[in-house]
Amino acid sequence: MSKPTAVFYHAGCPVCLDAEAAVTRYLDQGKVALEIVHLGTSKSRVVEAEAAGVKSVPALVIGGQTLHLNFGAALSALK
Amino acid sequence: MSKPTAVFYHAGCPVCLDAEAAVTRYLDQGKVALEIVHLGTSKSRVVEAEAAGVKSVPALVIGGQTLHLNFGAALSALK
């Protein structure tokens, strides 16, 4: 069975980059495959993020949960 | 050298419990030792959380960063 995927959504903001560093470093990548999505450059994925309950970035969608990590930018600002 | 400690602060709220489940499951505990602190029952540690920059719970203090995970309750409500 392949590992489930965790998706980290961000927009390149300073708060995003700090959170990305922490997630990349401390997430147990033996349990999940980490995908990092920049919604500023991958605008087509904003809809997917929204469907997962992402209201702002940075956010991590993992194991059926959406965790907003601090606050960088509202998703609505990225549309 | 002992592992650095990551501290997860919460207050038993539903949002806190969800975040705790994700942190407990997905944090790489080979890299950090996870300590879970319930600020509702350990009120003496609110000052320490505040000094670490925690504004609300649940929050994870890790590797010099303070990550607020969604929003359960303001720290000021726990004093």
Please characterize this protein's 3D structure.
Chain A is of the alpha+beta class and 79 residues long. In chain A, 24% of the residues lie in helices and 37% in strands. Chain A is built from two helices and four strands. The mean pLDDT of chain A is 96. The interface between A and B is medium-sized, with 22 and 22 residues.
List keywords for this structure.
homodimer, 79 residues, alpha+beta, four-stranded mixed beta sheet, 37% strand, globular
Summarize the structure.
2 copies of one chain form a homodimer. By secondary structure, chain A is of the alpha+beta class. In chain A, 24% of the residues lie in helices and 37% in strands.
Order of helices and strands of chain A: EHEHEE
Beta content of chain A: 35-45%
Number of helices of chain A: 2
What is the 3D form of chain A?
Answer: globular
Number of strands of chain A: 4
Whole-number mean pLDDT of chain A: 96
Secondary structural class of chain A: alpha+beta
Oligomer class: homodimer
The N- to C-terminal Cα distance of chain A equals 35 Å
Largest interface: A-B, 22 and 22 residues
Q: Work out the helicity level of chain A.
A: 10-25%
Question: How is the secondary structure organized here?
Answer:
The structure is a homodimer of 79-residue chains.
Chain A: E1 5-10, H1 14-26, E2 33-38, H2 46-51, E3 56-62, E4 65-74
Parallel strand pairs in A: 1-2
Antiparallel strand pairs in A: 1-3, 3-4
